[in-house]
Structures are given as C-alpha cells and as structure tokens.
Amino acid sequence: MRTSGNTGRVWFITGAGRGLGRAFAQAALAAGDRVAVAARTTGPLEELAAAHPGRVLPLGMDVTDREAVSAAVAEAVGHFGRLDIVINNAGTLSMGMVEEFTEAEARAHLDVNFFGALWASQAVMPTLREQGSGHIVQISSIAALGGFPSTGLYSAGKFALEGLSEALAMEAARFGVKVSIVQPGGYWTDLYTAMHRTTPLEAYAPLRAEMEEQFAENSVDSDPALAAQALLALVDSDEPPLRLLLGSVAYDLAFDMTHRRMDAWAAWEQVSRAAEHAIPAPS
Questions:
Q1: 10-274 has which CATH code?
Q2: Which of 59, 66, 194, 221 lies at a 20 to 30 A Cα distance from 261?
C-alpha cells in the first residue's frame, strides 16, 4: 500500500472535465500526483491546470477519434515521461427501449462507451509494457450487472467493456500491468441531465412509467468525492481486484443477481450437461 509520502505518479484520465473524472483528477492532485486530463471541452481542464501549476496537462480529445486518442497519450508521455495510472472514465448515457434505438444512436453510444475505452487502452499499452508497470482502470457501471428496461444500450456498452477488460487483464499481467473494472452505483454528476433519450414508442409507455417510478424510489446518489476516495484505495493497493463495486446498492444488486443466475443454472443443469458429449472430429 502506497503511503502519502510516496508521491509522483502520473495519471491519464479521460472525461476529466466534469463529474467522476474531475473528482478523480482532484483526488490524484490532492495525493501529490501529476495528471494528464483529457476531455472534449478544455475550459474546465485549463481551470484545473491553473490551480495546480506544473502538475496538470490539459488535453482536448474526443475519445471516439482513435488518432486523437493516440496523439493525446503520446503528448502525455512526452510531457511527463511515463504513465502510471490510466482511468478510462469518458462515457455517456443513452436511455430508451431496445426497439426504439436508431442505428445512428446505437453506434454513437457504443463509439463513446466501448470504442473510446478500447482506443485509449490500445494507446497506453505500449508505454506500460515498456515500463513493465502501470494500472488501467475501466470505469464501468452498475448497469453492467444486468440489463434493465430502458438501459439496454448502456448495459451493452458496459458488458462489452468488461469482457474486453477481463481479456486485457490477462494479456497485460505478464508485462506487470494491472487492470481493474470499477462498477459505480449512482453519483451526483451530470450524466443524467446530459443523457440522450430515444424517441419513445407509445407501446412502452406503461413500462416506461413503471421504470421511472422505480428509479425515483430506489435511486441512491452520492458525492463523487466518495468514488474518488475508493479509487485511490484501489490504485494504492499492491494487489488490486479485477472488479470493485462502489456503493451498497451496487454491492447488494451484484450478489442478488449472481444468486439468481446460479439458481437458474442449477435448475437447468441436466439440460446443460446433456448438451455436451465428446465425439471424434468429423472427417
């Protein structure tokens, strides 16, 4: 576990202009580290740099642009000389029933939530491999624990990110590089106010009303600073977990859904096992 006296790590954080990304950057700076902060809009990043002279590198970057991501990573490495912690935080929220999404809406959503993290992970790996160290943290979501009405595309992007990250964790481990998946519950950011909504189909009006009522009654949203403190504990650990749940709602839901899946698998065990019997390779 790193102590507060051992400072000087270099962070690269996407989506750092607001919300959780900004809270992560502020926590890293409070710990004495240096930070390359990337976002589409650089105004908030410049403010952060002005408040911490010499310790913040603001980078204008669109995570959906693979070349721009590679260029931003190269600039960060050239400026600081290394990378230690990479936080793939940039993301967006698109709400709507699966049937309602247009092709353009679906692709635009996955371009940010999945491909953006893929491009950043690919861009930083050569530096981390050469160093023989580093920690990539993928900011996923409680929505990756399961699909729910109106969150299908959001869950799809996070499911894809987690599958990618599990593979990356095994690939990167042989080079001394760690990968963690963080699954936050609700936090008071502008994720909800800035989210995209599909054009609603009347057929789903009753279901939509039920889901909105559930969200209103069961939502627990916290201060992003709490997520940032949890992130510091994660990156300070000598043996960070592959997955970290943030919040009691996410924690309880993870166990509940896992138990339900295990019960269903067990109930269908006979059918599952009967579907496998080794035979010689076809000629």
A1: 3.40.50.720
A2: 221
